[in-house]
Amino acid sequence: MIRLLISVKNAEEALDAMHAGADFIDLKDPAVGALGSLDDAVSLQAVRAVNQQAMVSATVGDAHESLEALLALILRKSDLGVDIVKLPASSLPMHADGCFALAELIQRHQLKLIAVMFAEQPIEWAWIPKLAKMGFYGVMLDTADKQHHLLTAVDTDTIRTFVRSCETHHLHAGLAGALRLEYLSELTLHYPSYIGFRSGVCRDNMRQNNLLPHLVKEIKDKLYKHNTFCNKIGN
Length: 235
Known about the structure:
With about 240 residues, this protein is an alpha/beta fold.
């Protein structure tokens, strides 16, 4: 089953997205980067509004000055009560000690972490099994530049390989990046774990603008039909 992730910037949008059928409510500040960290107080309001009726994720920003700062921020976001914390793969430690520290943090606090790889950058395929070994929940393929959508940043073979590699290593595979309803039929062919939207469900397709619940519902309805059809075929 392919699930729907919707990025929101406040509690009102979180409720709108949830009531329109979003499976994941992703807390993000679209004004400060691809993975803009949303204010903690605003995030807490959204977590309380959702009240465990949907999965909630939070982003930690696009860059971090040190491993220690990243680990502290992951815990800070987790302490808000979110289910999942998303972080850029570019901030992950390359050395063994750093990987061990992150794996230990995941295990000690029972964290669900998603690493975000940006499609405009060379994909580090060797990182996918490493992330699985560290205990990550999943990996997302997204775009850093929201002026271009995912299907213009990478070809379909790359998307297919990404999803299959995640499946092989038992990681949830996410696809995102300035996506719109009209791209859904092509993306569902790859059967990712979830597909994420922000700009495509906002007024005038501008990610800083307010979310439009009817667009969320339209995408959810199309995903529901796809999932139902696949279940029938599978049975």
